[in-house]
Amino acid sequence: MQSIYAMRQNDSDNLEKEEKFLFHSIENIRDLYLIMVSALVELRIVEADFIEKSQKKHLATAAERNPNKKFVNNQVLILLEESNPLSIAMADRKIDNWKRNDDYILILLEAVKASDIYAKYMESKTSSYDEDREFVADLFTEVIAPNEKLYEYLEDYKLTWVDDIPVVNTLLSKQLRQLTPEGRDAFYVPKLYKDLDDKDFVRDLFRKTMLNDQELAKEFIDKTPNWDTERIAEIDAIILKMAICEFLKFPSIPVKVTINEYLEIAKEYSTPKSSIFINGILDNLVKDYQNTNKLIKTGRGLM
Fold first, then answer.
1. What are the residue boundaries of the NusB/RsmB/TIM44 domain, all occurrences included (predicted)?
2. d(CA 57, CA 121)
3. Among 50, 105, 171, 296, which one is most buried in terms of CB atoms within 10 A?
4. HEC string for 219-273
C-alpha cells in the first residue's frame, strides 16, 4: 500500500524501480530484526566486560570483587550469543550497528539496571532456564522495545522501519518466550517469506493493482454516488483498489480475509471513519459479484 501511495504521489510510471524498492524495504525488515536481537547480545557482552574490568581495579570494593553475575550468566542471553543461525545471518547482512554505536547499548543497559524487572531478577544469584527465559522476554518487551532513545535511533537510521518496528518486536517477544535450550541451533532467524508463492504474491498484488488502476477504480466509483472521486481520500482509494484486486484476481484468497486485512490497514493508516466507509463499499461489491457470478474463488471456505 505504501509503495503504491509513494508511486502515485511521485507521479512515477517506473514500475520496475518502485517494485525493486518495495522488495528492498522488505529485505530491510530482516536487518531490523537482527539489530534488535543483537542488542540483547551486546548488553550481556558490555556488562560482562564492565564486571571484568571492575574486578581488576586496584582499589576494587568487596561488591566489585565478588559481583552478582546472574545477568551475564543468563542462559538465554548466552544461547543468543552462541547461536549459529544468528551469527551467520548477522555476518551475511553485515550487522554491526552496536559496535559502531555502543553509546546506545550503554543507554539501554542503564535503563535495564534501573528497571524493576532487573532488580527482582537480581535478588538472588541462582536461577533456572525458565526464569532466565521469562526475564529476557519481559526485559525485551517492557524495557528495551519501548525505549525512546532506541526508537529514535532506528527511525533516524532507516525511515521505512517506523511501521516495521512493532511487527518485529512482537515477533521477537513471542520467539523469546518459546525459546528452548536445544544448543547452538535453538534460536532460528525467521524467513521473510513462507515460500516462493508468498514472495510472488507481493509482486503480483503490486503489479496488478498498479496496472489495473482505472479498471479497479470503476468498480467502486458507481457504488459511491454521494462521493466525487476527488473527495475519496487517496489512501482509501488505494485500499479499495487493492481489496478489489484481491477479490477479482486472486482466486485463492478468502473474501473475509481480504476484507478483514484491509479494514485493519484502514484503521491504522487512514481517517477514523475510513474503515466504516470501506467496509460498506466492499460488502456491497461482494454481494454484487456473487449475484453476477463475477466472484470466482477456488477451494473450500473461500467465500
1. 196-287
2. 26
3. 105
4. HHHCCCCCCCHHHCCHHHHHHHHHHHHHHHHCCCCCHHHHHHHHHHHHHHHCCCC
Between the ranges 186-195, 196-205, 217-226, where is the mean pLDDT highest? 196-205
The DSSP call for residue 274 is H
125 pLDDT more than 90: no
- Residue 191 reports pLDDT greater than 80: yes
Distance CA 115, CA 109 (A): 10
Angle between helices 234-249 and 213-221 (to 10 degrees): 100
**Count: domains in the chain:** 2
- Please name the residue that has the C-alpha cell 509503495: 3
Same domain, 68 and 200: no
Given a contact cutoff of 8 angstroms between Cβ atoms, the answer to whether 275 and 295 are in contact is: no
- What span, in angstroms and rounded, lies between the C-alpha atoms of 236 and 241? 9
pLDDT surpassing 90 at residue 129 = yes
SS3 95: coil
Cell of 244: 478489489
Query: Does residue 95 share a domain with residue 20?
Result: yes
- C-alpha distances (whole Å) from 212 to each of 174, 242, 246, 262 are 39, 10, 12, 18
Q: CB atoms < 10 A from the CB of 80, how many?
A: 21
Tell me the residue range of the domain where 85 lies.
2-177
Give percent helix, percent strand, percent coil of the chain, each to the nearest 5. 70, 0, 30
Share of the chain above pLDDT 90, in %: 75
What distance, in Å, lies between the first and last C-alpha atoms of the chain? 24
- The pLDDT confidence band at residue 229, using thresholds 50, 70 and 90, is low
Whole-model pTM? 0.86
